[in-house]
Amino acid sequence: MKDTNLGAFEELVLLAVGSLGDNAYGVTIKDALVEQTGRAPSIGSLHSALYRLEGKGYLTSEDGGATNERGGRRKRYFQLSSSGKKALEAAHELRTAFSSKIPGLNLKNS
Amino acid sequence: MKSSKTTPPLLLDWFISGICKHEVFEIVQGDLYELYERNLKKHGALKARLLYIRDALTILRPTLLKQLEGNYQLNPYGMFKNHFKTSCRNLKRNPLFTIINAVGLAISMSVGIMIIVFLSELYSVDDFHEQKDQIYRVTTTQPGLMGDQIDHLATASYFVADQAKSEIPEVEKVAVMSWRFKADVTFSDKRVALSGFYATPSFLDILSYPLQIGHPQSALDQPESVLLTASAANKLFPDTDPIGQWVDLAGLGNFNKGLVTGILKDPPANSYLDFDIVLPMQSNPMISTQFRSNPNNTFENYVYLLLNDHADVEEVATKIAALLAEHPYDMSRVKHTLEPMGSFITGAKMNANGPTFSSRNVDMMVGLTLIVLLSACFNYTNLSLGRSLRRLKEISIRKVNGATRSQLFTQLIVEAILVSLLALILGIALFLIARPLLLSQVNDLLQDRSFFLLNLSWIKISYFTLFALIIGLIAGFFPSWILSRLKTSLLLNDAGKIKLLPGMSARKVLITFQFSLSIGLIMCAVMVYQQYKFAIHYDLGFQTENIVNVNIHGDYMELLEQDYKSLPQVLSTARSQAVLGLRGGQFGNAISEDFQDTTMYSCNYVGGNYFDLHEFTPVEGSVFFKTDSANSIIVNQSFLKALNLDTAENAIGTKVRLRDDQQTIVSIQGVVSDFMGVSLDFQMPAPFVFFPMASGQKGTLGLKIATDDLLATMTLLEKYYQKYDLVHPFNAQLYDDQLASNYQQLQSSYTLISLLAFLAISISTLGLIGIAIYTLESRLKEISIRKVLGANTQSLILLLSKGFLIMISLATILAVPVALHVVDEMLLQSFFHRIDIGLLEISSGFVIVLLIAALAVCTQVRRVSVQKPSEFLRDE
After folding, report:
1. Is the pTM value of this prediction over 0.80?
2. What angle do CA B557, B561, B563 make, to 5 degrees?
3. Min distance B78 CA to chain A CA atoms (Å)
4. Contact criterion met (CB below 8 Å) for B480 and B412
5. Can you tell me the ipTM of this complex?
6. Model confidence pLDDT, tens digit, residues B588-624
7. Which of A1, A43, B657, B808 to pair with B531, CA 20 to 30 A apart?
């Protein structure tokens, strides 16, 4: 179970990768996260989360082209895998099912 | 500089690329650069750089860092396990080689262990004194009484002690002690022989010999006070409280009743001073007011000063000199110095009150040990290099398989350390085997007191382990470094062509040096042994065979003599005061009756048939003291010559004045031919005078014995002795044994030197074997070709041993003069009658070393020369 466990930050990173579609690499993911949450994750924590998620099989990655502004370094594009999608769904279900047990909390329209 | 401002910090990049996971790094760095470019436009160079640094540092987290792999793991257990295993296998595969190496190191390591233990004990002497750093002994340098030598005395005058106490402010306390005395102490029916000294009360304040019972302030105050050590008190008062008991003291002149006022704890084994009893200085019969005020009386007392903690020692010494200069006597020939307590034992003073082990000896020991150790390390290196020619293939295959240089190096070092740890175990075993021998030799040299214990402790053993590790590192470093450096292609191509070491000649020089050391030591051992044999077989001029000397401590000698005479085993008996031929003796001054001639003489007091028993050669007159011959003397021929009494016939009846007062006039009753009255390393006047021995005197009873069972006879003699004396243990020795024990020190030196010689030979032979193996292994092909062309084993041995013969000859040329000098100046310098040094002594070292070396080389040459040439030539 440990491997499929999803942390809060990891969940956000998965969501960001999924929302970016084909253009998800380090800098864009960071920008998306800043835009959505208002807080900038550090490059280190972001990459370590990406690395972990790839290890768990929630993300796949492929090398992209090198650009000049990157000092000749290649980009690595990330994509949500099917098990990544499942994990997001499971996490969402767990949340809704859990929070519905809280009396007086109206989540229907959210 | 300008461009560097627009690029991210490269040093940081390099650092991160070194420790970050490789697959992650490129992507992360790309992101970092992209962000940097963006920030550069938005915020400018400085902020962009700072942000870059902040972001880059966030990468340093466990998931993104490189995992340590293989031998880069933080826990190198696996690596060491592998090294350990392969080392063990390697060592097992060449058992002979391993044993030679380990034994060579073990021998020298046992010497190292011995020295470490010995020195640690030597330098911890007197450590229990709380004020050790502030205690000094006043020593004296003055011209000797006899001859023109300078005496270095451990004693000083009472005058200096008194003056220093009152006149020199830096001196806090002064203690004065006398020479050691021996006294018989009696309490009711118990009687024990104790030794000790007189001391001033401050003795207890300065030195840390705590009182078990009694008050330090008052224990030595009264003239009748007696302090005993706990063990002496236990002997004397097994079941009484000793404090406040009166004891009888015998053998101390006028002081014959004492009151026990305190019990001292037994002095520890590492105490410089050794005593059972301490008496107050004021009851010392020698110390009078007159004596105390004369600064010339430098010979009788030890003066200890306690200086305050900021005193300048030099200044105090100057002040003492100034005090002496003020004295009305001319004291310019007497010099005083202050000796710190730490160097009492190494001070080498003439009349020291404790054991002496001169610092020159310490230096010599440390030097020899270092030579031995370094030689052993060097031999290991030599042997390993020699053998490693055979291991080149192993090493190259390791390299081909990807072993890095550092891995090879560690592996070879681990092997060396393994050998040295093995050697340590052997070395400790050797040390434990040799310990009793060493202990007796060392303690013999130091006044026969069990002063050194040479104990091992776990702390010392852990030091030795460290020591062994260091030795292993030193010994293994060079071969490991050389072997791990070699290029693989070279190794696999043609191993024969590789020159491992350019310094072949340097190694030969070292081997030659080792050989000259062994040759020199063998020569010393042979010469000392010859001198020992010479000394104990020296014709003294009288008979000592089958004579037992019994020490007599009381006035019962004549009664005991009568008893002994009745025994069938005792042929004849004779009384005498001293035993001739031993160290020391009495001497006096004689003047001819007409005051014309004067001479110093040695003397002895003897009973009637002394000359008969010892078979002195009579020359003239009667050589038998009758009971009425109180004023007669018997002299030797030298005495006549010294007093210009021309012929022995005329001399009989001549009157001679004796002693300083010139009052006693005696007449010569008989003349014996010259003989040797002292040991060969002791100088006494050659003229000799025998006085008749008065009845009731103490001394020695000589018994001519005829028996097959000496032990039973001794027991019988003891039984008779105990009828008269129960206090002093029965002490009887064969005269010849006593003479031999004269030269105990010579024998000790002989044993120690032989031991060292043995070590040196073993080590240099190992070194030679190392060189031989190396030479042979690198000339295998040449030898094989020679064999194919028809050379036989003998001619090969000859060919290969030529070089070694030259080395040994060179070593001999170096060693002989040095050894002769050392023997002359240091070992036998005290002997007045010496052996003639002949060809035997000079060639001994050369011959022995040559034989051993030849044996060593021949076995190696044989090993190679019996191998089939095809083995080595088939690859060509």
Report:
1. no
2. 120
3. 28
4. yes
5. 0.82
6. 778 877 777 778 888 888 887 888 888 888 888 777 8
7. B808
